[in-house]
């Protein structure tokens, strides 16, 4: 019999806060994380702005590792502490980790490329590079830090990475493969190469502003950071007297493999993925009290997403608050899904929904309630969080009180 899985701990490192408390207050205030890039000199570089993590101090011997690993350590540490559990007292074979990253250590990659060019680095530097660059090393370092001997997995699914990771972690707990799981994702892709790549793909904002669903939107700003949650069975959390943020009640994976950067509007991939999650538990779109949108601020992406929501939700679409926190955090890429999931859990546990900021002129036909510019107090009994990705990967999670 499948176990009911709950979220009993959460941790965040983001452009709008380096812990859960700061993140929560920034969401409520509608704070923007955008600013001038500090990681490298932009004087001769055409892109000046991003949504960087600010004033972050690496912990537990991670200062030499890539920022994507540093961020995941801090977020996971907070999630474990927030769950109020001493992992030293738990069978290490009954703890799992699912820590994804869309690319791995891109800061490390660029630093090594700039330092060595076409020359051969030393064996020591090669080992250091391997310890920080591959996406799976985040999960391996977390396992080492927490002495976890259960599964330590890594998902790499572009911008759906975080959502995929949490779905898989929840499935491991539900199936009884593990008793506890740290699940989430981390990305640190604010590098010259990645910024140039997104600009060349015409996905990065030339005006350097995040405006999801606004008529003047022209792309996203890159964000970075990590979101990690602590998952366990409802029975376990109640027995421990743990705080429960939300219950995971349905999820679904899916895809649209038509194009690397566009979606097939005739195939209805997103609405099909969400509909499968709903039908797996007998849910209806009208059961949702809040929807965490993907909202990347690209012209085609936002239009596809809105049309898919209207296709599935039909008459209830205009009645449900829906927002994109990317308007505040920037597009955190692989970390986005897990951080947006955490925002949904806050909505469930505290009774409010975050805003979509920089939304001044909604595009004609986008007749949804995007919670423009100011958060809203609202009782949220059930929420949907979903992600879309370049390459077509899609995922959806439904949480309830």
Write structural notes for this entry:
By secondary structure, the chain is an alpha/beta fold. It has 2 domains: 5-240, Peroxisomal Thiolase, Chain A, domain 1, CATH 3.40.47.10; 250-400, Peroxisomal Thiolase, Chain A, domain 1 (3-Layer(aba) Sandwich). 34% of the residues lie in helices and 18% in strands. The protein has helices spanning 20-29, 67-83, 106-116, 123-132, 137-146, 161-175, 192-200, 234-240, 269-280, 299-313, 326-329, 336-350, and strands at residues 5-13, 35-36, 49-50, 95-100, 152-153, 180-187, 225-233, 246-255, 290-292, 322-323, 352-353, 376-377, 382-388, 393-400. The strands form 3 sheets. Strands 5-4-6-7-1-8-14-13-9-10 form a 10-stranded mixed beta sheet, sandwiched between helices. The longest helix has 17 residues, at 67-83.
Descriptive terms for the model:
401 residues, alpha/beta, Peroxisomal Thiolase, Chain A, domain 1, 2 domains, 10-stranded mixed sheet, two-stranded antiparallel sheet
Secondary-structure map with pairings?
Elements: E1 5-13, H1 20-29, E2 35-36, E3 49-50, H2 67-83, E4 95-100, H3 106-116, H4 123-132, H5 137-146, E5 152-153, H6 161-175, E6 180-187, H7 192-200, E7 225-233, H8 234-240, E8 246-255, H9 269-280, E9 290-292, H10 299-313, E10 322-323, H11 326-329, H12 336-350, E11 352-353, E12 376-377, E13 382-388, E14 393-400
Parallel strand pairs: 4-5, 4-6, 9-10, 9-13
Antiparallel strand pairs: 1-7, 1-8, 2-3, 6-7, 8-14, 11-12, 13-14
Helix pairs in contact: 2-5, 6-12, 9-10
